[in-house]
């Protein structure tokens, strides 16, 4: 029977329920197909702490070696640690994780050598086609007839050293930092990365547990940082950091226990990266980041470039423009010096360096980077997304001084506000983001647009 991968292969990765939607037999086919499409003679594989991850990774390795590729297994790692290995070893890579999804899910994030992304337009469609074909007929063996080898390698120490070499932390003042790893891979990476720093580390949920017994490992959902916020206040800490399940995203909480906008972190890191590069360079930001981001980039001598939401678009623009840094409002941060890949850990180190390099609190430091009132992302279930977007464009089209663009969904801009409505790629949802120069205006625009969307 031919496997149905329509619900499994997404725009940027493979993700689904184990074993209902996929299992080790399919993982083995994905390994063989990945080697054929990338024409790789060697690859690197890592995995997170989910119960199904070691078996799926081993099956993928069997498929890859059967096609003649040598495999380097780096074992338990964060997604950005896998990107490090792909970049440092110059090998295509596969990371077994479902990020912040519930325990029954698992997936694969794929990249070419140098951590270049593999998505629907860059090889994932061809991989899916081969897996579907081979699920019916079986995968062919190695063209040369000789299977590849498997070796194991520990990259955690080298990964930590690479990141620490990109941020000056030696002279910072002592900081008390609460870190909520959410039982995800931050519990594996943070102790090594933070070792030797003048940091009093207060760990939360560092035990690797892919059943996520304490809360979902998704710090963008406010309910999942409540424990961290309370602990920051109880410990009188300087800041808190929350990582998602595969620890490639990092969310920041200030000394008051308040969540910091990822746009403010993007602006802060952009200013620091521009300073590292002599006050010039291009910075990529997606279209739902704050107005603050391009303003700060220009103020610090850089050139902002606005792009669609999604890591494949950010990475493509990073490469096209030779950008030094890129940020998304989802707390993904991309660095030229990290093979244009995203690493929340490096962004977190920049925050520590900036905070530890001056005497004030984090909230005061970030005031200059967080200038506007934002709604956050609000989802609405809408059956006819295109029809609703057309109706809202028509509604605002009659108003004076209003501009539009359709880079990604519909962005409507007024003198003191903007909003973006984007359809979900996978669900019948419209996603709304609103920003304005003050809270009152933002609330009025948000409520008006939501009333139109949900009418």
TrEMBL record:
Its cofactor is Mg(2+). Residues 377-451 form the Alpha-D-phosphohexomutase C-terminal domain. CDD domains: PMM_PGM. Residues 7-135, 158-257, 267-372 form the Alpha-D-phosphohexomutase alpha/beta/alpha domain. Signal peptide: none annotated. The keyword Magnesium applies. The keyword Chaperone does not apply. Keywords: Isomerase, Magnesium, Metal-binding, Phosphoprotein. This is Phosphomannomutase/phosphoglucomutase.
């Amino acid at each position: 029977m031919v496997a149905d991968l329509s619900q499994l292969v997404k725009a940027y990765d493979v993700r689904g329920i184990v074993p209902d939607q996929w299992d080790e037999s399919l993982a083995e086919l994905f390994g063989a197909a990945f080697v054929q499409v990338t024409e790789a003679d060697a690859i690197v594989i890592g995995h997170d702490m989910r119960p199904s991850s070691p078996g799926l990774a081993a099956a993928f390795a069997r498929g890859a070696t059967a096609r003649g590729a040598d495999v380097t297994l780096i074992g338990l790692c964060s997604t950005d640690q896998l990107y490090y290995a792909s970049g440092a070893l110059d090998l295509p890579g596969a990371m077994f994780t479902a990020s912040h999804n519930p325990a029954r899910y698992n997936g694969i994030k794929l990249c070419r050598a140098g951590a270049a992304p593999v998505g629907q337009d860059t090889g994932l469609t061809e991989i899916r086609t081969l897996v579907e074909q081979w699920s019916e007929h079986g995968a062919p063996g190695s063209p040369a007839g000789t299977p590849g080898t498997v070796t194991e390698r520990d990259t955690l120490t080298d990964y930590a050293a690479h990141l620490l070499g990109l941020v000056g932390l030696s002279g910072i003042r002592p900081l008390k930092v609460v870190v909520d790893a959410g039982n995800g891979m931050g519990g594996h990476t943070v102790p090594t990365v933070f070792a030797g720093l003048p940091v009093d580390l207060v760990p939360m949920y560092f035990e690797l547990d892919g059943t996520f017994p304490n809360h979902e490992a998704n710090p963008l959902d406010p309910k999942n940082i409540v424990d961290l916020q309370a602990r920051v206040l109880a410990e009188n800490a300087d800041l808190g950091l929350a990582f998602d399940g595969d620890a490639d995203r990092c969310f920041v909480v200030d000394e008051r226990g308040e969540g910091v906008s990822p746009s403010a972190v993007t602006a802060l890191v952009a200013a620091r990266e521009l300073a590292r590069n002599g006050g010039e360079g291009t910075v990529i930001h997606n279209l739902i980041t704050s107005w603050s981001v391009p303003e700060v980039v220009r103020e610090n001598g850089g050139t902002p470039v606005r792009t669609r939401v999604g890591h494949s678009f950010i990475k493509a623009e990073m490469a096209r423009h030779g950008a030094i840094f890129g940020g998304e409002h989802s707390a993904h941060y991309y660095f030229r010096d990290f093979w244009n890949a995203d690493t929340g850990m490096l962004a977190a180190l920049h925050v520590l360096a900036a905070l530890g390099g001056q005497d004030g609190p984090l909230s005061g430091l970030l005031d200059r980077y967080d200038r506007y009132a934002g709604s956050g992302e609000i989802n609405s279930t809408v059956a006819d997304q295109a029809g609703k977007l057309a109706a809202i464009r028509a509604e605002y089209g009659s108003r004076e001084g209003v501009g539009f663009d359709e880079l990604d969904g519909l962005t409507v801009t007024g003198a003191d506000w903007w909003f973006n409505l984007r359809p979900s790629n996978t669900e019948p949802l419209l996603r709304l983001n609103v920003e304005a120069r003050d809270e009152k205006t933002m609330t009025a625009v948000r409520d008006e647009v939501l009333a139109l969307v949900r009418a």
